[in-house]
């Protein structure tokens, strides 16, 4: 059962505070927990392997690199279409985003071919993506990989250029891959309404993927919509009961609300 702050106040008014009956920790237990900063953006990434796509069939991780390093650039002037989401503020104004980047995804990028090849440097992976993208700008897979590169580099506009390109060419049932990346960029840039829109689209396309539910929950936390956030974390756990990040964030929200309630109690 989910209780936000006002409901907690009503529930505990005039009676012993029975946190256990709710399945919540007590305030004393919350004090002992390692505090989680709910404002921290937990970057997520939906790997194409989840769609049964072998990335090594699209990017050459084997051939030694001889040429100078390259970066994977997408078409910044791709005309708007019904797929590119240019009606969203964050897409239309991508050149002026306040985006901090997502360096925590660097390891993901460096290990894209990990099942067959050892990790490579950020520059090497970027060059490998750039080489194949240069020859095939219509590949949504390569555009999505390029967007991941720019997310790590902290270049929001270039990342969104690539995601527009990916969305333009992606089949409907694959669109949650670029949409989740776009939701993370908007979340990082504090464009939460845009983030909710695209994360919700991702869930509607692929409701069976844990990361889609988890990403949407994270945005609701940033908006301090804790009831909605917990609902989506709980749906995350229905899909994967042992998913620790969702469990930890539910506990962090519960403790946040309980401690807030304690401070306001007479």
From TrEMBL:
It comes from Micrurus carvalhoi. Keywords: TPR repeat. InterPro entries: TPR-like_helical_dom_sf, TPR_rpt, TTC17. One of its GO terms (biological process) is actin filament polymerization. One of its GO terms (cellular component) is cytoplasm. Gene3D superfamilies: Tetratricopeptide repeat domain. This is Uncharacterized protein. Pfam families: TPR_7. TPR repeats lie at residues 210-243. SUPFAM superfamilies: TPR-like.
